[in-house]
Amino acid sequence: MKKEQKSEINVKSKNYMLLTSEYIGTKNFKYMIRAELKSDTGSTLFLLGIPDPITVYASVTNSGQDAVKEKVFLAVNDSIAEYIDKNGFVEGTIYYGEYIVDGSFEISTKKPLWEDGNWGTKIEL
Q: Strands, DSSP E only, in the chain?
C-alpha cells in the first residue's frame, strides 16, 4: 500500500516533488494533510487542516472515500501551486493552510492555533 501520494510541481523552471500524506486524530482537527515539497536542494513543509470534513463530503456528488480523497489531494496540489505562483516561497519554511468553503486551502506562514505538534495518526493511503 502506498504511504504517500507523489506529484510533480514546476516552480520557475525547477522541478519539485510534492509528497502528500493524510493524518487524523489531532487535538483540534480530525483530519489534516502534510505535504512536503522536495527538490535536490531541500524541502518545504505545508501543514493543511480540514476543520470540518463534512464540508468536503458535502461538496462531492459521488461521496465515496476515493472521490473525497481525490478532491482533497487535487485541492492540495492546486492550492500549493497557486500560492507559490502568486507569492513565491522560501525553501525550508513551514506553511500552514486551512480548507475553505470554495474547495481550496487558504495558505500562509502564520501558525494557526490548531498546530500544536500533535498530528495524530498517519493514514495509510
A: 5-11, 14-24, 31-38, 43-50, 94-99, 105-108, 121-123
- Over residues 47-76, the pLDDT tens digits come to 998 877 776 766 665 556 777 788 888 999
Residue 51 and residue 53: Cα distance in Å, rounded? Answer: 6
Q: What is the pTM of this model?
A: 0.81
* Listed residue (43, 37, 34, 39) closest to 72, CA to CA: 34
Distance from C-alpha of 74 to C-alpha of 37, rounded to nearest angstrom:
15
Quick check: is 117 in a domain? no
Total Cβ atoms within 10 A of residue 83: 19
Query: DSSP label at 4?
Result: S
The tally of domains found in the chain comes to 1
pLDDT in tens, 78-88: 999 999 989 98
- What the block records as the C-alpha cell of 86 is 502568486
**Mode of pairing for the β-strands spanning 31-38 and 121-123:** unpaired
Q: Which domain holds residue 74?
A: 5-105
Cβ(51)–Cβ(57) below 8 Å: no
Evaluate whether residue 88 is within a structural domain.
Answer: yes
- Three-state secondary-structure class, residue 67: helix
